[in-house]
Amino acid sequence: MTCDGAIRCASAVLSSSLDSASRHAKGPHEQGPRITRPRPRHSATPSGGMSSAASRPRGARAPPPSGYDRQVSTLIKQVRVFDGVDVLDADCVLVQGDRIVKLGRDLSAPAGCVVVDGAGGMLLPGFIDAHVHTPDQGTRDEGISALRQALQLGVTTMLCMGCRYPDFVAHLKALQQPDLADLRSAGIAASVEGSHPTQLFDYYPTLNGVEDVAPFVHTRVSEGSDYLKIVIEDSSVIGKSTPFLPPEVSAAVTAKAHSHGLLVVAHAQSRRFVAQAIESGVDGLAHQYVDQPLTPEFARFLKSAGVFVVMTLAVYHSHEGVELANDPRVRPHIDSRWMDILCSSVGGQEQFQEYGLAAVRPLRDAGVPILAGSDANNPGTTYGASLHHELDLLVRGGLTRTEALTAATAAPAKHFRLPDRGRIAPGLRADLILVEGDPTVDIDATKSIARVWRSGVAGRGAAPAAGGDVLIQRALDVGVSIPP
Ligand SMILES: [Zn+2]
After folding, report:
1. Is pLDDT at 468 greater than 90 in this prediction?
2. Which residues surround ligand 1, an ion (CB under 5 A)?
3. What is the pTM assigned to this prediction?
């Protein structure tokens, strides 16, 4: 199929009546009512100022988190090891400092090594949520809450797909604490006045034409954007009509970003705009399209274009967020400030749900890389927890459990150019999750988290979680010993 063929296909406009459903929050790309947002109120970072992450060259190794000790080693034994792609013939993983140094069977513990008996659970790479939004109120507590909650629930890296305050995000990126998820961000997304997400803010930088492209991209680079996001959206999927980024501008932004070495992802929820994004040369899609069913033919077109797709099924199944909120393995780790959002839902999503789930199998069969992304913090989602929801939905849509786990580990690491994580292998960051049970047999087991390590430091599980339930406590009872 050609792009022209794709563009010619009729775009079915969904009849979701989000505005009329007053008891519901707005749709996945309309985060609540328009509000005047204060400038972020943050203090200088503990590590010497918020500019450090922004000024660090992209791809440069992040400084180790506080709490990191090069001399400390940890042997995790009696585990099954999922390395991001396969289950390995190994039952031990040795960590030294912030790195994985050895895998194998019956490894012996070096002197002074912390030994963690995994009691037959599974060790996985820390999860990467490939589509979140950092809290946009811009308060330090809020940002830290989001990062902490994510890590507690096994998400060691969050990829922000658009924010309002890049300086605030730079501040969060610089924190580098073992109890907080690592963060990457697109910063401010490229859009036009009147299009998404400008309706959410009193002021949002936009492009008026190709003449604005070079300064726009240059500013994003100087702010520390790790990749760029373009928004091609006329809001027809929610029954509205707004301006949208014209093809010549989406192509120019993509080319300019590529010239700066930035990856480009596109928000496009209609098939015609996905086709425009592909024509523009983007590297990936921040959603699959939901205005009509995704056909096997279009899936092969996406494969031939070499793009990846972040599915964001969880945000389309917002009515299921309340189940997460009531899961005793998850609930104790949800900050009360996010609970109402997780328990809220969006009306009129039935067609998005149907088309979203039905898109998984043709994309998989065509060989299109599928990445797990929750679109937290939209209604029905929240940080960390909703990545588990996304995994469940990917399996319901047709991925094997192992493929779903890859979509949250090795695949996002590869496609977002994070070669130091997403796998369990010697030399990589020791971002690890220990779970009770085997998620390659039952994907629900990802929620039964016993421990989370970020860069070799236990960010969860070193002490029983406050208010933790019986299942988590039992998992924590696997035991820690420090040999002489
Ligand atoms: Zn989003």
Report:
1. no
2. 161, 375
3. 0.84
